[in-house]
């Protein structure tokens, strides 16, 4: 770039608060000074917000006060003025009924917090599942220079000589207890071994997926996805990010300068190569909506075509995030994918995705496979359509059973999770291994909030017979750490009258994953009769946030965002407050 090409620096929005000598400038500076901030910090240096999702109720993010301190050191080192602020945190394991009910609420918290305050650039501290998309979505609607620092995964779990991974092993052990193979005592002992250090889930669940996808979008410094939370290099990474965000403000490198349609295509392809979570689908669709970048559900099918599964991590494979880091982490995957990506896409480093990973080696090619010997040739999330899902559904073949990818079976229908829990283990339930378990009423409106219940537990009676997987179909989501032949995100959902609501016990359902088909073998006349007789059963919340949610939530194929939150709204500075 010649000096003629460098755009004139934009005036910093923080000057609207901190410059001048009038009543308001006095108020803005003076009260900040009660924290011990010296006068020189108000001299016009960039003010960097550190958006923190620390909470003791979000154990995956409980180490974020330390992480924020590291970011601050970097910001100060680079001549910036750090200001840390909290937003609502979302702890995946604790919050009921589901964190997804609150992702959009947090995104509003983030967006309004950034816009209302003297912030010139922002570092997003993300970890547990929803904290990443919520913060990205809110920041996207503001579109300031934005950089993500993830908290990093927990260390590998080890128990009774075996490696155990967050979620994935819990689901497997829980089924082992139900089938009588594992004692409740051993199950209880595995708890402490599963989560033995700070950090988020150590499998390629939603947290690791979203951290990887963020790196692929170009929104984090290289290496962000995999450095373990407790590794000293995670602190260095945070500090480096603090330095870089100050430079980004000086360069006026905004989120929309970094993230383009090509970045989303990269993110989808990387998600395929890592065996990433189905949750990435709704989160990426919502983020694209905020950035006003066209992206559709079918893009996930098209963009992941011919992308090999390279990363051998649970739930699709064997290893965990700690192994992934030692094997080279996401830079090695990006380098190995090479020409399968848009390597010329810009990133927050100011360089391209390809430049960031030049020469990044694979240290262990069982953990990160080479393209010549992938775990699976054609990976990624498959999009299904058909009369049962006119607007689409998703399935993750790498986490499914091969013999069920083409399957026709008899429907056994459950209307909501209460119905499911009440009947699934009943000796009277007529259910066989070839049947298809259907759950309705678990979508964005129906639950509400689209909980992660799609990987429904199998009937105890069939588990005892050695059955390990069955086709399951719902309008719910599932944990990124889960596995099985599980069809999710059926749109439109049952609660708004989607065809899923019309399925009855004994109907035959065809699943054809290679063909992308999900079909209810019931003729159109009969379906029309059932539709005319359909009465919505979901309770409409009387008021409060839940009412706002069901009134405005978009369906899964549109990312489950609120209709009124789609788009960028900028960061114009509002009038003085006094
Ligand atoms: Fe927080 Fe899995 S529960 S990342
Ligand atoms: Mg999860």
TrEMBL record:
It is an enzyme of class 4 (lyase). Residues 45-356 form the Dihydroxy-acid/6-phosphogluconate dehydratase N-terminal domain. It holds the Pfam family ILVD_EDD_N. The lineage of its organism: Bacteria, Bacillati, Actinomycetota, Actinomycetes, Mycobacteriales. Its EC number is 4.2.1.-. Keywords: 2Fe-2S, Amino-acid biosynthesis, Branched-chain amino acid biosynthesis, Iron, Iron-sulfur, Lyase, Metal-binding. This is IlvD/Edd family dehydratase. It comes from the Bacteria. InterPro entries: Dihydro-acid_dehy_C (IPR042096), DiOHA_6PGluconate_deHydtase_CS (IPR020558), ILV_EDD_C (IPR056740), ILV_EDD_N (IPR000581), IlvD/EDD_N (IPR037237), Sugar_Degrad_Dehydratases (IPR052352). Belongs to the IlvD/Edd family. It comes from Rhodococcus gannanensis. GO terms for molecular function: lyase activity. Residues 366-559 form the Dihydroxy-acid/6-phosphogluconate dehydratase C-terminal domain.
